[in-house]
Write a structure and sequence with these properties.
It is built from three helices and no strands. It has 85 residues and is an all-alpha fold. Helix 1 crosses helix 2. This is Ribbon-helix-helix protein CopG domain-containing protein.
């Protein structure tokens, strides 16, 4: 594992725990290794879905459609938010 590691602790029901132990025994791995592998695979799957969702986000269709004043960033009030009193 690269970089800084973090400890994660959670509860699982007895059926899930038993299945994880069986997998660990069958693969001759520790329960920790099986859990890490399962989490890694889950994150890989979810990452793919997240990337697809991001690509489908309608915001990408409007980027580049508007026009900006080339001198706007030189204006002292540019980017200031007016808060209601």
């Amino acid at each position: 594992m690269e970089g800084i590691t973090k400890h994660v602790q959670t509860e699982v029901d007895e059926n899930l725990y038993n299945m994880l132990r069986i997998i660990a025994l069958r693969k001759r791995m520790s329960l920790k290794e099986v859990m890490r592998e399962a989490l890694k695979r889950y994150v890989e799957l979810e990452s793919e879905k997240l990337e697809d969702d991001i690509k489908k986000d309608p915001i990408w269709k409007i980027i580049g459609k508007g026009k900006l004043d080339p001198h706007a960033s030189q204006d002292e009030t540019w980017g200031l938010v007016e808060w209601p009193e």
